[in-house]
Design a protein that fits this description.
- Among the domains are: about 5-65, no CATH class; about 65-165, 2-Layer Sandwich (Tetrahydropterin Synthase, Chain A).
- It is about 50% helix and about 15% strand.
- The protein contains 11 helices and 8 strands.
- It starts with a helix and ends in an 8-residue tail after the last helix.
C-alpha cells in the first residue's frame, strides 16, 4: 500500500469522525443540553441537530415525560409518640432541562430528602388516627411544599401519594381488637334491634288478633242477645195469648156458672148441702191440729134435714118430676156456640209477626171485668129462692141494705 493511499484513508476516516461529531439526533420527549467550550450553549429539541466538532458537546440528556418515583418507607413519629413507616409515591416532570442540569446536582435525591423532611413535619403534628384518616390532607401539603421548592430546579410536582402507613405491630394488634370489638358491638346492636323489631311485630300481631277476637265475641254477644230478645218477645207474646185465652175461659166459666145459678134458683137445702161439702176441705192440711165447728153448722143441719122432707109439705128438691115423654128434666136453653171462639186478632195482625216489641197493655183487647163476689151474693139473695127468710137468716141481709 502506497503512502498516498494510506493518507487518503486517514483523511477519509477523519472526515467521517468529524461528521459523526457534528451530527446528533434527539429522540421525541427528550432534550439535550449542549455546552460550548464548557459553557452552556443551548438546549436541543427533538430532531436532527448540528454541533461544532471538538467545540460543542452534549452535557446531559433529559427525559421530558412525567416520571414516577417510589420512595422506601420512612420512619415518622406522630404527635402521640408512635413510630410509623410511610411509603410515598411522587409524580413529577422536568419543565426546564437547563435548570434540572445546573440548578441541582441530583434532583431525584433532592426530592427524596425534601419529601422525607416535609412528611415528618406534616405527620408530626397529627396523631395516629389523624394520620390514618387524613391522607388527602397530607398529600396536598406535601405537593404544595415540593412544588414550591422544586420550581427553581426546573421541575413540576404533579401529585404526591401516600402508599402505605405501617403502625407498630402492637398498635396493629390493638387496632384489630378494637375493630373486632366494634364489629361485635354492631352485631349485638343489630341482633338486639332485630329482636326488638320481632317483638314489636309479634305484639302488633297479637294486638290485632285480640282486637279481631274481641270484635268477634262482641258480634256473637250482640247476635246472642238479639236472639234471646226475639225469643223472649215470642215467648211473652205466646204467654200473653195463652193468658188471654185462659182469662176468656175463666170469664166464660164464671158467666156460665153465674147464669146457671140464676136460672136454677137454688133453694135453702141446696145451699146447705154445698156448705156441708165445703167443710171437709176446710179441715184438710197437715198443719191443722184442731178443727172448730162453726156456729152455722146447726143451721146447715136443719137445712139438710129439710132435704129429706122433714118439714113442710115433705117434698125435697131431689124429688124431680119426670117429663111427659119419660126424658130428662128440661133445662133452660144455654148458648155455647161462642165458647171456643177467641177474641184475639188474626196471626198476620199479631205484633210478633212484625218482630217488634210492643206494650202488652196496648195490644190486649179489653176483657170484661167480672162483678165482685159480694155483688153476686147480694143478687142471689135478692132473687129466687134466696129471698126466702131462712136464706136471709143463713147469709144475712144484702150488703146494700135491700130487703
Amino acid at each position: 500500500m502506497t503512502p498516498a493511499l494510506i493518507a487518503l484513508i486517514v483523511v477519509a476516516l477523519l472526515v467521517v469522525f468529524v461528521i459523526a461529531k457534528s451530527v446528533t439526533i434527539v429522540p421525541q420527549a427528550q432534550a439535550k443540553v449542549v455546552e460550548r467550550l464548557g459553557r452552556y450553549s443551548r438546549t436541543l429539541s427533538p430532531g436532527l441537530s448540528i454541533l461544532v466538532p471538538f467545540i460543542d458537546r452534549v452535557r446531559a440528556t433529559i427525559d421530558l415525560r412525567e416520571q414516577v418515583i417510589s420512595f422506601p418507607p420512612q420512619p415518622v413519629i406522630t404527635a402521640d409518640n408512635l413510630q410509623v413507616g410511610i411509603d410515598t409515591v411522587l409524580y413529577f416532570q422536568v419543565t426546564d432541562p437547563r435548570l434540572a442540569v445546573y440548578g441541582i446536582a441530583n434532583y431525584i435525591t433532592g426530592m427524596e430528602q425534601l419529601t422525607t423532611t416535609t412528611l415528618r413535619n406534616v405527620v408530626g403534628g397529627l396523631n395516629l388516627e389523624g394520620a390514618l384518616t387524613g391522607r388527602d390532607g397530607i398529600n396536598s401539603q406535601l405537593r404544595d411544599v415540593l412544588d414550591g421548592t422544586t420550581g427553581p430546579w426546573g421541575l413540576r410536582v404533579a401529585r404526591v401519594e401516600i402508599k402505605a402507613i405501617d403502625p407498630p405491630a402492637s398498635i396493629q394488634d390493638s387496632m384489630e381488637k378494637q375493630m373486632r370489638a366494634d364489629r361485635d358491638k354492631r352485631a349485638i346492636i343489630l341482633t338486639a334491634e332485630g329482636a326488638r323489631q320481632s317483638a314489636i311485630t309479634t305484639a302488633e300481631g297479637q294486638k290485632a288478633a285480640a282486637i279481631l277476637s274481641a270484635e268477634g265475641k262482641k258480634q256473637a254477644a250482640i247476635l246472642e242477645a238479639e236472639a234471646e230478645r226475639q225469643s223472649r218477645i215470642l215467648k211473652a207474646e205466646g204467654e200473653r195469648a195463652a193468658l188471654y185465652l185462659q182469662a176468656q175461659g175463666q170469664a166464660k166459666s164464671i158467666e156460665t156458672v153465674f147464669q146457671a145459678i140464676h136460672d136454677g134458683k137454688p133453694d135453702q137445702g141446696l145451699l146447705a148441702y154445698q156448705y156441708l161439702q165445703t167443710l171437709p176441705q176446710i179441715a184438710q192440711g197437715d198443719a191443722n191440729k184442731m178443727w172448730i165447728v162453726p156456729s152455722e153448722f146447726s143451721k146447715a143441719l136443719e137445712g139438710l134435714s129439710r132435704l129429706g122432707g122433714a118439714d113442710g109439705d115433705g117434698r125435697s128438691w131431689m124429688d124431680v118430676e119426670p117429663s111427659a115423654n119419660g126424658g130428662a128434666r128440661p133445662t133452660s136453653d144455654m148458648d155455647t156456640s161462642g165458647w171456643m171462639e177467641s177474641q184475639l186478632p188474626s196471626a198476620a195482625e199479631q205484633p210478633e209477626a212484625k218482630i217488634e216489641l210492643s206494650s202488652i197493655t196496648d195490644t190486649l183487647p179489653s176483657v170484661p171485668t167480672p162483678p165482685p163476689l159480694s155483688q153476686v151474693t147480694d143478687d142471689v139473695r135478692a132473687s129466687g129462692p134466696a129471698a126466702d127468710p131462712a136464706v136471709r137468716q143463713q147469709f144475712g141481709p144484702p150488703a146494700d141494705g135491700r130487703q
